Amino acid sequence: RIPAPEKGVNFKVQIAAAHREVGKPYFQARHSYSGDFQIERHQGWVKYVTGNHPDYRSARDQRVAFRDSNAQR
């Protein structure tokens, strides 16, 4: 299923990238992340992104929170 195009500028946070697709159980076990994410494919990469922020600052804050929660593990 191809999502409908978004209007305007929206910022997302990439939480991982790989050459193969994994599911939610992987993120729960590996990163203690149980939130929603979308998959985007680009030049052979499978990119896992989350969020839909209207401004860079809120996307950056989400990225920092995700990174910090993984650093504490």
Protein model, in words:
By secondary structure, the chain is of the alpha+beta class. 33% of the residues lie in helices and 30% in strands. The chain has two helices and three strands. The mean pLDDT is 86.
End-to-end separation: 35 Å
Low-confidence stretches: none
Radius of gyration: 13 Å
β-sheet strand percentage:
25-35%
* Largest sheet features: 3 strands, antiparallel
| Shape call | globular
The total strand number stands at: 3
Output the helix-strand order: EHEEH
Supply the helix-strand structural class. Answer: alpha+beta
Number of helices: 2
How helix-rich are the residues, as a percent range?
25-40%
Q: What's the overall average pLDDT, rounded?
A: 86
Strand order in the sheet with the most strands: 1-3-2
Write the layout of secondary structure elements.
Layout: E1 11-18, H1 24-31, E2 38-42, E3 45-53, H2 56-71
Antiparallel strand pairs: 1-3, 2-3
Task: Report a brief summary of the structure.
The chain has helices spanning 24-31, 56-71; strands at residues 11-18, 38-42, 45-53. The chain is α+β, with helices and mostly antiparallel strands.
Keywords:
73 residues, globular
